[in-house]
Amino acid sequence: MKDIEIKGMVSAHCIIALSIVMATIVPAVLLDDFSVYGTHLVWLYICTAGVAAVNIAVYTLLGVSPPAKKNTLSHKVAKVSKSCLYFMFSCLLFHGIVVLYGAPLLESASETFSFAVLLSTFTTLRCLCILGPNVQAWIRVFSRNGAMSIWDTSLQITTASSVTGAWLGAFPIPLDWERPWQVWPISCTLGATLGFVAGLFIAPLWIHWHRKQLTYKSK
Amino acid sequence: MMKRVPVLALLLWICLLFYVGTWIFLSGFLLVKVEVNRNSSCKDKPFSKQDSSHTEHFCWSEPRFKRAVILIIDALQYDFARFDPEIKDPRPFQNKLGVLSEVVASRPAHARLYPFRADPPTTTMQRIKGFTTGSLPTFVDVCSNFGTNAIQEDNLIHQLGQNGKRVVFMGDDTWENLFPNQFHRSLPFPSFIVKDLHTVDNGILQHLCSTVESSDWDVVIAHFLGVDHCGHRYSPDHHAMADKLTQMDQVVRSVIERLQNDTLLVVLGEHGGDSQKETDAALFLFSPSALFTVGQEKALQEVVPQIDLVPTLAQLLGIPIPYSNIGKVMVELFALGSPEDGSAQERRQAEALWINANQVNRYLDTYSLANKDLSPMILAHLKDMFLLATTEYKTLFGGPLAGGPEHSSRVQALIATLQLYLNQVREMCQASWARFHPLRMAVGNAVLATACALCFITSDFADVVGASYRRLLWIPVVSGTVAGGGFALWQFSTGSEVEVLSSLGMAALVSQLSFFWNFCRRKATRVFVHQPSDLLNATADAAQQRPALTWPSIPLTIFFLRCASLFSDSYVVVEGRVVTFLLSTLAIYIPVQMNWAGRLLLPFEAQKSAPPCLPLQPSTPAASSSYKKESLTLLGCTGFLVASLYSSHFFHGCRDEQGNCKPSAFLTPLSGLRDIQLRNFRYLLSVSSVVAWVCLVRRWMRHYGNMNSKSPAVLVARCGLPLVATFVSLYWAMSSAPAEDFGNLQEVVRLALLVFPRAVYVLFGLGVAVVCWDPLTVFLKSRKEPAPSLLPPTYRASTGVSLQAELQHLIPHIYQRMRKSLRAGEREGAGREDDGQPTMEAYGLGTVYSAPLLLVLALLGLVLAMLHPEGLMLSFVLLLLQACAILHMHSAATSLSTPGSRAGCVSVSWAAVLMWGLAATQFFYSTGHLPTFPSIQWNSAFVGLSEVHAGHLAPALLVTLNTFSSQILFAVSCPLLLLWPLVCESTKAGKRGRRAGEGEDGEEAVMEMKLREDPDRFSTALLQLGARYLFIHGAQLLASVCSATILRRHLMVWKIFAPKFIFEASGFAVTSVCLLLGLALVMRVDSAVSDWFKRLIPAHSR
């Protein structure tokens, strides 16, 4: 049972990681003068859109999200609109936090916001896909005994690793190496992306490694 | 009784270990030279020649040139200047300055190119100092007038001015700071902006040629920065460098074309750095008239030390050699005369060297009188050598001119002797002034590292250490003293000089080793000592011991990153931001970690039907609401903390290295503002911040019932605090208005500027003295109704909120009722409702420790704020609020993570101490300070002091207070970290169950009285807190010491790392002293409380 689940997770995560790789390669082939540093925002948007689309598709197909009590259309619409609202809110929240951490307030505000959108895609969107628009459940997942399935555990790991990656990405900015990727927010977005991808790979491995210790309570 | 002396003594001993380590390191790292502020002059007769065969219309020697053009091309390496035609594919920096080699090849008698080397430490300023004074640069030149950059020592520019030469300067504006008002004309251009390659150079180019063509000058100095900036910006291998060097080539060519016969051209590169390649710059000399004897060139030119240029230029231009010069003249420049007349050449060389040697000898005499750091043996040897040479010189040239081969060989021997003498002088001075002392640096590092380890052990095993001071404090101290004393005695008995430093190092190391050895033995035997005595405590301790061993990993990582950041120059430059970044990470980590541990939100845990991992789960609705409140406090404080971290950036100053950075507007004093409305607004802002400061503190005290009694300490809070605030505001009002506004009242204003600050100092002193004399702020009130039972009088800490006099009687009763009923509701199954009816009520007893501390802090904060520019009062209020937020976060986190148990309350977590320590650094920057010497706020030195009679001590003290005000405030208030969770407990005191089986039945110790109940644990907790705080600062000191050691050859060491280290070391000294004072104040309060209880309660009660 568990092995099947882990295999499913591996393939799902591979597809998501692949989407990031494609978002980097395909535009480089199709578009002129595209580069991750030079036209960073373009790459960022493509990457965000790709990851978002693949995430939603994969998790809808897998049916990981909690079963709806009422399966009516209006209920679904309410759920989707609520999710969109949450996503917007999390973008604003991330934007605020990033500014408080020292990002410039007015200049390059659009870059900061794009970075916030990227971070939200890596974290909030996955929360929405896996847990649904339920803040209580989100808070519950991020506690030691909160995970109720291997998807919750993978959510913990990927979220933590993307945030940590973004945090680490801020480190090279003050250094005087004068490299193109030291410009705000390139190093942070790259850090977040690398962290996310690393999280995608670490999560199944970690779960596989600790499968004896992991006991999930039923909901 | 609580152990007061041992706790303070142990912490003091740890501090002393840190001081000794720092001092030893400092003596090996910072090379100190005393500046001799005497000038050479033409009248110094010993240097004029003994034979007055011809009239002396010149100074010490006959001038060879009337005028000189000195072109300084920053970072012009020797590689750049050479021209090697064999290179087929030159790199961008090669073969671009063709003119130098061309001229050398075509006119060998007129030009020569040398490699040129500067001595470390080499910042631009120190190099300019080096080749104008001729003395070795050291990092700290001890001079009478610190605070200004101007060169105090005798130098070339000064001598040129003295002797009527008109000096025209253009280029790097560092010169303008070093030699204010000494140039005939000067055209300075800003040098800060490293990315700007052209401003300075183009500015010079506009004026250089026209100046050289005109006749309105004697010496032109032009300092180009483009090559250096290009090297920093792009690296030498960049086409921009090729363009820049080609441009310089053109400059040199056009200057050579315009030179007249009486003019000397000097082109010199100057650059410092690590490797040989970077330090060797180029030196090019040229004159239209013959300068060298042809046929004497060597294939490989020997390296010319930078300082040798000074006596050479001085003698070529016929001015006295600067007094402090220890350079040697370049003799080949004096070998002029008809080539066939060898004796005349030698005579000139000998004369130049002899004048030089005379001047150096005189300098050494003066210097060795002022300072003893040069070895007397070598000095005596040099003196002998010089006297011999003098006699020889006088016999050779004193009488009529002789000739012959014998005479010639004696002259050559004399030249060799004089050169040897000058070389040896320079070597001796280099050994003493310009070389590190690796052994001392290593020992200093070792002592500091061990002190850090010791501090960490003390903090983590505070209970072990606290239980055995005899073994762990007195034995190490005694053994260290014995070892140090014995070592000194041994040195004394063997006849060598007693080195204080090595004895101290010995003492420190031995006492540290003794501590570790005793600690290991103690730890092994500890279990057997403790358990029989009190079983309950020991098991509790053992349970506490386990988690103490594992340091929470995230705070550890953050602190490690903080220390690691001190190793990079970029991070040190933006340290203010690095610290806030890490601090906000820590702030966000705490609630996240709480949530991870499942402590943040109760409802979920309750739903999960109390997992077994949480003992003593309070499940009543009252408890859950309390939980929710704590969580909300935690989240709210986190938000506030992060916001205040962000807003503290608005008060930052700017380093030179930060390119596009504007210093905060709050840093300019109000008197500097022209706009009257803005000035008034800013003044109002500052005054309202003062009012806010006072009101916040008084409100807090009133809230906890500390403002009711009639004790002197309360009087200080009632009257002293507002009075100090008024005087501070009045002082600012007086100092901010421009002097001309007052007209006839100027005398009065000057008096007021002295009187107000002094009144503040006196009031502060009085206030602190009063608080120390009687720190109790407790209001005692007997109950009106007689006690129903015949119990002895008991005490009760209460949070009587009594805003008005008439309410004072009412509210305590209501409060008591409420509490009683609450307690009655709480207690399940225990039928003892009406016990412990108190006959006395004490208001403010719950905050008896923190109230005096806070009062002293409020006074101290106002005094420190007065020393700052007015606008920074805002930053001080922010500091107060942020400290409050940290304290609330800490107490909320403590009570959330240890529900029901009290053990955690008396141990302050690493995360909280780390936040406290980082906040101290953060506000160092947010009070407008930077770890660089020019940014010290020197204005504060004379607040309330007349500039004439101030002396040195008081201004130095004021500057220290100003610079480290943030460290002072945070260190003094450090005990609050221990007290605050207990103070905050009052909000849920009513819900707490009683402790069983301890003390008299009716007693319920709440808030800080809990500490008094358990004096041993209190002293242990104070020790632990002190040791942790010292560790946080000590480890940062260690990191900066290590970075200075490892990076001592780094290009930026004297500009970034060494000042950072010095600020860190002084900050540590200030912090440790203030921490001890804060702890001592808490202990003084404790003894006062004990006395008070003795008076209050007859002997049978306790």
From TrEMBL, chain A:
Pfam families: PIG-F. The chain crosses the membrane at residues 12-30, 42-64, 85-106, 112-132, 153-171, 183-209. Its main location: endoplasmic reticulum. It is a multi-pass membrane protein. It is found in: Endoplasmic reticulum membrane. Keywords: Endoplasmic reticulum, GPI-anchor biosynthesis, Membrane, Transmembrane, Transmembrane helix. Pathway: Glycolipid biosynthesis; glycosylphosphatidylinositol-anchor biosynthesis. InterPro entries: GPI_biosynthesis_protein_Pig-F. This is PIGF protein. The gene is Pigf.
